[in-house]
From TrEMBL:
<dbReference type="Pfam" id="PF00450">
    <property type="entry name" value="Peptidase_S10"/>
</dbReference>
<dbReference type="InterPro" id="IPR001563">
    <property type="entry name" value="Peptidase_S10"/>
</dbReference>
<dbReference type="GO" id="GO:0004185">
    <property type="term" value="F:serine-type carboxypeptidase activity"/>
</dbReference>
<keyword id="KW-0325">Glycoprotein</keyword>
<protein>
    <recommendedName>
        <fullName>Carboxypeptidase</fullName>
        <ecNumber>3.4.16.-</ecNumber>
    </recommendedName>
</protein>
<dbReference type="InterPro" id="IPR033124">
    <property type="entry name" value="Ser_caboxypep_his_AS"/>
</dbReference>
<keyword id="KW-0121">Carboxypeptidase</keyword>
<comment type="similarity">
    <text>Belongs to the peptidase S10 family.</text>
</comment>
<keyword id="KW-0645">Protease</keyword>
<keyword id="KW-0732">Signal</keyword>
<dbReference type="GO" id="GO:0005576">
    <property type="term" value="C:extracellular region"/>
</dbReference>
<keyword id="KW-0378">Hydrolase</keyword>
<dbReference type="InterPro" id="IPR029058">
    <property type="entry name" value="AB_hydrolase_fold"/>
</dbReference>
<dbReference type="GO" id="GO:0006508">
    <property type="term" value="P:proteolysis"/>
</dbReference>
<dbReference type="InterPro" id="IPR018202">
    <property type="entry name" value="Ser_caboxypep_ser_AS"/>
</dbReference>
<keyword id="KW-0964">Secreted</keyword>
<feature type="signal peptide">
    <location>
        <begin position="1"/>
        <end position="25"/>
    </location>
</feature>
Length: 456
């Protein structure tokens, strides 16, 4: 999630810092079975104490031996938003009761669409300074994707080293929104780094998945006007006004004026918000924004922090404005070239909730067309298959060899929150290459004569 009102957060920070509110309400219900399999810190700089916080949930009902069971790594966006949103609001095994009545206390309820049904899931608060992760100094917070990846590589390596059975498990890097930059970056970093490392230090990357991602901002920022116009949200005159604002962001990006380009993109999104009066651009069908602040409320209890292996004096923020500020010059830099590399050397899924106006279907399709890959024309010409889960329509999947693009119906920016079961079916089938994510050539490979018009 992109961070929002800086001034407001600064105000709240100062307010609560000077008048701490005593935690009078009783701690929320946190059943023992909702605890992570393990959680804690992965050192980044042992000298200063900077470290990445992790929460790991082993597969509930794996279909292979644990030492072969895939490991998914989840990275939240922002920049600076905590993966505990992914954990407790989207795809973790237990989520906050986000459909609760306002007067009900916050608690955890099991998520039948959890992504750790078949696979282990590791949530990382990335980069340092985010969520429960620790940045000893502001200077240590990464300013670009290279540094983000370097830290992630070190954190993932030390996690894998904790347990001998992790060593050969295939790793899938997944994430959402601004992780549209983190995910291809760490994937690319692993592929480039592995050949220089001894066998026991290599990371076993098997694929990357980007949900409603910001990956190629210069292409994506230019799609809002048309998308909103054809969605019936703005008129022709507003479309023109939006196009002028978009062009400004594109020009500043081309000039490499990164900070102003980031501001110009924010202006485009604010303009759209202002013109449409929508509750949130993350889902144009919603009457109110996602109430992910429930996660922050849940994580403010010292009992909960203790249970999760966090120092109870730590103050949890959904999104860190400081990390957002440090990465400001990174926002408009394209990571598409890393996807070019991953699609040739690994496997890539992009998926989008249909109702997202920020990093949605049209926005993603625009940059996918530009991927440099010998097979891209075959991909673009591939059938967009109707995808069902059980008997119900779930969305559409277009796949060619290592590249898959899924559109999830009835979902906004936070796909696993809105379509838990379908998101679970999607990630499982993509990893296991089943159903619509199965072999492209299955049809062609059918022996001749297996069809109705057989000659025998
Ligand atoms: C960036 O753009 C702004 C606004 O157009 C301009 O005032 C500023 O001088 C530019 N900075 C650089 C380094 O080009
Ligand atoms: C948003 O809309 C209001 C009128 O509804 C207008 O007064 C205001 O200037 C607009 N803000 C921006 C940033 O466009
Ligand atoms: C928690 O953090 C505080 C403040 O940094 C520190 O004094 C305390 O020793 C820490 N507690 C534990 C258990 O690490």
């Amino acid at each position: 999630m992109d961070s929002t009102n800086v001034l407001l957060s600064v105000f709240f920070f100062l307010f609560f810092a000077s008048f701490p509110v005593p935690a009078t309400s009783s701690p929320p219900f946190f059943p023992a079975e909702a605890l992570p399999t393990k959680s804690g810190y992965l050192p980044i700089n042992p000298t200063t104490g900077s470290a990445i916080y992790f929460a790991f949930y082993e597969a509930q009902t794996p279909i292979s031996s644990i030492s072969k069971t895939p490991l998914l790594i989840w990275l939240q966006g922002g920049p600076g938003c905590s993966s505990m949103i992914g954990n407790f609001f989207e795809l973790g095994p237990w989520r906050v009761n986000f459909h609760k009545k306002e007067t009900d206390p916050v608690s955890l309820i099991p998520n039948t669409g959890s992504w750790n049904r078949r696979f282990g899931v590791l949530f990382l608060d990335n980069p340092i300074g985010t969520g429960f992760s620790i940045a000893a100094t502001k200077d240590e917070i990464p300013k670009n994707q290279y540094s983000v990846s370097k830290y992630l590589f070190s954190a993932i390596s030390s996690f894998i080293e904790q347990d001998i059975t992790f060593k050969n498990r295939p790793i899938y890097i997944t994430g959402e929104s601004y992780a549209g930059k983190y995910v291809p970056s760490i994937g690319y970093y692993i592929l480039k780094k592995n050949p220089k490392l001894p066998v026991d230090k290599k990371l076993n990357l098997a694929g990357v998945a980007i949900g409603n991602g910001l990956t190629d901002p210069i292409t994506q920022v230019a799609t809002h006007a048309l998308n909103a116009y054809y969605s019936g949200l703005i008129n022709e005159r507003q479309k023109k006004e939006m196009e002028i604002a978009q062009l400004e962001a594109v020009e500043l990006t081309k000039k490499g004026n990164w900070s102003e380009a980031t501001n110009a993109r924010s202006k485009v999104l604010n303009l759209l918000k202002n013109m449409t009066g929508l509750a949130t651009l993350y889902d144009y069908t919603r009457k109110s924004p996602y109430n992910s602040e429930l996660v922050a409320e849940f994580l403010s209890f010292k009992e909960v922090k203790r249970a999760l292996g966090v120092n109870e004096s730590m103050v949890f923020e959904e999104c860190s404005d400081l990390v957002g500020e440090v990465l400001k010059d990174d926002v408009m830099k394209s990571m598409r070239y890393k996807v070019d590399y991953l699609v040739k050397n690994s496997k890539v899924l992009v998926y989008q909730g249909q109702f997202d106006l920020r990093d949605g279907v049209v926005s993603t399709e625009a940059w996918l067309k530009k991927v440099k890959w010998g097979e891209i024309e075959r991909f673009l010409g591939a059938d967009r298959k109707i995808w069902s889960v059980g008997d119900e329509l779930a969305g559409y999947v277009q796949k060619w060899k290592s590249l898959s693009n899924a559109v999830v119906l009835g979902a906004g920016h936070l796909v696993p929150s809105d379509q838990a079961l379908n998101s679970q079916a999607m990630i499982e089938d993509w990893v296991l290459e089943k159903g619509v994510f199965g072999d492209d050539n299955a049809e062609e490979k059918k022996p001749f004569g297996a069809n109705d018009f057989g000659v025998w």
